[in-house]
């Protein structure tokens, strides 16, 4: 479990194809030097397990299913990624409860400062995820806990404050870039329960 509050970055040192996915080597910031094998770390919102905390970087094995749902297969040496260690008992939940289970990728359609509304990031979202997106509710984009400022039938818009722009990579994303999406687990649970009981619209996904 994570909070979606990003305090650390990592740098991709190696991307090695494996028989069932890829192995990523990521150099973390010094504050994460105590990470051990078996620990969970979210990379751009994707929960992964540390295979080996090697001296030059942390090793992660990424299976094909994760690659199919995320943009990790497109990562290159030198790329900077958000890193968040898993919550510990007693930690403050400054964002919201994030599982690190990315449901798919959206596409950036707008990412800029607007004169009257501040910085706005708008993301095109698949039809299957939209029922779990609630105005003023929580959403996780690239591992960052954010509040839905506006939504329509095909997209979600969030406001990025200067603190978020400084501490994350979100402001650097370009139109057309993929972005990891995890909807709020509470909303997702309610929607799936309603569907399973036959009380709401079904999904083709």
Which features does this protein show?
3 helices; six-stranded antiparallel barrel; mainly beta; six-stranded antiparallel beta barrel; Elongation Factor Tu (Ef-tu), domain 3; 12 strands; 205 residues
Describe the model.
By secondary structure, this protein is mainly beta. The protein has 2 domains: 8-85, Elongation Factor Tu (Ef-tu), domain 3 (Beta Barrel); 104-196, Elongation Factor Tu (Ef-tu), domain 3 (Beta Barrel), CATH 2.40.30. Helix content is 12%, strand content 42%. It is built from 3 helices and 12 strands; from the N terminus they run E-E-E-E-E-H-E-E-E-E-E-E-H-E-H. The strands form 2 sheets. A 6-stranded antiparallel β-barrel has the order 1-2-5-4-3-6. It starts with 7 loop residues before the first strand and ends in a 9-residue tail after the last helix. The model has no long low-confidence stretch (mean pLDDT 91).
In short:
With 205 residues, the chain is mainly beta. It has 2 domains: 8-85, Elongation Factor Tu (Ef-tu), domain 3; 104-196, Beta Barrel (Elongation Factor Tu (Ef-tu), domain 3).
């Amino acid at each position: 479990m994570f909070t979606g509050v990003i305090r650390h970055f990592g740098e991709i040192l190696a991307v090695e194809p494996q028989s069932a996915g890829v192995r990523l080597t990521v150099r973390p910031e010094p504050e994460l030097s105590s990470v051990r094998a078996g620990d969970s770390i979210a990379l751009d919102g994707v929960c992964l397990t540390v295979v080996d905390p090697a001296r030059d970087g942390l090793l992660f094995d990424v299976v094909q299913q994760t690659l199919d749902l995320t943009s990790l297969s497109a990562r290159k040496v030198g790329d900077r990624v958000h890193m968040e260690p898993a919550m510990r008992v007693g930690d403050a939940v400054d964002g919201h409860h994030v599982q690190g289970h990315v449901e798919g990728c959206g596409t950036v359609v707008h990412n800029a400062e607007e004169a009257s509304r501040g910085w706005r990031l708008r993301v095109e979202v698949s039809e299957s995820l939209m029922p779990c997106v609630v105005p003023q509710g929580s959403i996780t984009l690239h591992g960052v806990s954010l509040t839905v400022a506006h939504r329509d039938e095909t997209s979600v818009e969030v406001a990025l404050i200067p603190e978020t722009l400084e501490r994350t990579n979100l402001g650097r994303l370009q139109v057309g870039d993929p972005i990891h999406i995890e909807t709020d687990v509470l909303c997702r649970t309610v929607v799936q329960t309603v569907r399973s009981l036959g009380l709401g619209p079904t999904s083709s996904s």
